[in-house]
Amino acid sequence: MNLKDYCFFGNKPFVIEQFDPAQTGKFQLKNEVEELHHTNLLKMQELQDRLYAENKEALLIIFQGMDASGKDSAVKHVMGGVNPQGINVHNFKKPSSEELDHDYMWRSMRVIPERGKIGVFNRSYYEDVLVGKVHKLYQESYLPDRCKTDKIFEQRYQQIKNYERYLYENGIRVIKFFLHISKEEQKKRFLERIEDDQKNWKFSDSDMIERDYWEEYQRAYHDAINATATRIAPWYVVPSDKKWFGHFIISETIIDTLEKINPQYPAVTRERKERLLEFRSKLLREEEQSSF
């Protein structure tokens, strides 16, 4: 798979109207990628184990997308096989009163992954240039009036780019996924949630309210991706009408990023190796003694 088709890092514009969310690359059916995806999950387990052991770099994975775009599903099916000790998942919902009393980046900064770990954000600080932009939430915020200007989102794009560079320069890599679905596919998934008793809990009144702002959200994603896509913190636009294809792209991207990090198991010194051999000999002697 050529990930360049889905990767945006400032080298080309992202035009949301020209990006087909139903595309599946060279594949036609789910079973064509199942084995490849399974192989990727096994690779990811090994690379994550090495990342955790080396304890030098961290990886932050951000999932953004419209309601029903498959963010929860992506976390479950792509990250479900990794060692729980080496991954932290955070789901950012409506800010609490405490969070609103801080700057918009504060709640994300508190849970940035430590070295050796993978952090997954289901939604993120990008909500403040997506939902915040569509609904002009800054106008009713606790910000001083001097901050409530027409330039607020251009300033936030720059702040986010600076912050992601700061993370990169401190050993934390960032990759961002926009799970892109069509309006028709969202409608189909909403109806499934309404008609299936076991999925009723997934549907909320706000889902329909936000759907009325579909075009505004499309423009907000278009603007945010183009403004914050960089080589060190790229955006991957994932066609998500077919979840199986989206999951494959995500796993391919994570593998590619981890392979670029190329973590290694820590090497031991000669002195430590000799000490380990002493322990080995002692353990083997215990076996010999117990056999008598």
TrEMBL record:
All copies of domain Polyphosphate kinase-2-related, residue ranges: 34-263
Keyword Kinase attributed: yes
Q: Which GO terms describe its biological process?
A: polyphosphate metabolic process
Q: Which domain of life is it from?
A: Bacteria
EC class of this enzyme?
Answer: transferase
SUPFAM superfamilies documented for this protein: P-loop containing nucleoside triphosphate hydrolases (SSF52540)
* Keyword Ribosomal protein among UniProt keywords: no
One Pfam family here = PPK2
Question: Which EC numbers does the record give?
Answer: 2.7.4.-
Question: Could you tell me the keywords of this UniProt record?
Answer: Kinase, Transferase
For this UniProt entry, the molecular function terms from Gene Ontology, in alphabetical order, are: polyphosphate kinase activity
* Protein name per Swiss-Prot or TrEMBL: Polyphosphate:AMP phosphotransferase
Protein source organism = Syntrophobotulus glycolicus (strain DSM 8271 / FlGlyR)
> Lineage in the entry?
Bacteria, Bacillati, Bacillota, Clostridia, Eubacteriales
